[in-house]
Design goal:
Elements: H1 12-35, H2 44-62, H3 76-90, H4 92-95, H5 103-111, H6 114-119, E1 125-128, E2 144-148, E3 151-162, E4 169-175, E5 185-191, E6 197-202, E7 213-224, H7 239-275, H8 291-318, H9 324-354, H10 360-370, H11 377-389
Parallel strand pairs: 1-4
Antiparallel strand pairs: 2-3, 3-7, 4-5, 6-7
Helix pairs in contact: 1-3, 3-7, 3-8, 5-7, 7-8, 7-9, 7-10, 8-9, 9-10, 9-11
Amino acid sequence: MAINLELPSTFDSAVERTHLAAEHIFRPISRKYDKAEHEYPTELDELGKLAKQGRSKENESDGDAPDSDAPSLNGPNMRALISAREMSWGDVGLLLSIPGQGLGNAAIAAVATEEQLEKFSGVWAAMAITEPSFGSDSAAVSTTATRDGDDYVINGEKIFVTAGSRADHVVVWATVDRSAGRAAIKSFVVPMTTEGVTVARLEHKLGIRASDTAVLRFENARVPADNLLGSPEVDTKKAFAGVMQTFDNTRPVVAAMAIGLGRAALEELRRMLSEAGHTIDYDKPAAAQHASVCEFIRLESDWEASWLHTVRAAWMADNKLPNSSEASMSKAKAGRTVTDVTNKAVEVGATAGFSETMLLEKWARDAKILDIFEGTQQIQQLIIARRVLGKSSADLR
């Protein structure tokens, strides 16, 4: 298969719609909800309805799509990529607050059966993985799911749950058998109205303050066995890999968030350089130009590389090709680049970059999480190294 790195014209309307939303809905309220942390952005309710209608239309059109053997398909992963990129240009925290578009929805899409996809088609699902006892080591899950008749009973605590207090469902990672290790880790769709599910607290954060980040507790929370995503069998060769497939879908989307935010900062940096009288000349060697221009060219090239990595990862997912390495590469590159770009923009902006007269300082704060959640920079590099060197997680830690 060949991959064309230019966006297909069929996505033009999606790019236009999402960018207009970022420009006219997100940007005007960006500072408001950064200051009003934990206040729900009611302006997003109508946008959530429109997004839901758009997904319904896309699902209908997917029925007319070519079969899976056709070359170069562009499907839901590429659409999610474009939406995340354009809306993150407006505000990452607000993007994460749109009703109906939680990270748990990506988990459902990745591993659910056909029956489950239909059952959970209208939910807004958060994702609950991390626990107080571990950070990025997803295999260290200690939350338990014990089979009891036709139900599973879930006990444990989850931290850093994005949209944890706003979503109506949460996808919980739990072990069905501690003695079986990572193979026994499964994901469960749990309604937030389930008895025994409580929001313990909301976090106060450095960035993406418009998005709520919750601590959830599960105390004998009972859910139907059918809410276990995928197969209930404990398969030492496939089980955890199936759960981890979620990240192969979500990491390129997080990379796209970083790319959208990075583009916003690059545009502002270009404007500041222009106002200072520094022209960016791509026909001259970067080293022969003003130091700030040289730095801009370096940052822009890193940003472009991030975008190409991310397009490739999403395209592979849509074409049912294994993309674990590419997903981690896109996340690692974009996460590192966006922090570099936003920090440099603050530095060049001087006093304006540190003040609230512009969005630069906010973007720098928001950028940091994009290098952390869905797997830190260090975890991504570890995954990439294992893939490149052909090592297992036991061989290379």
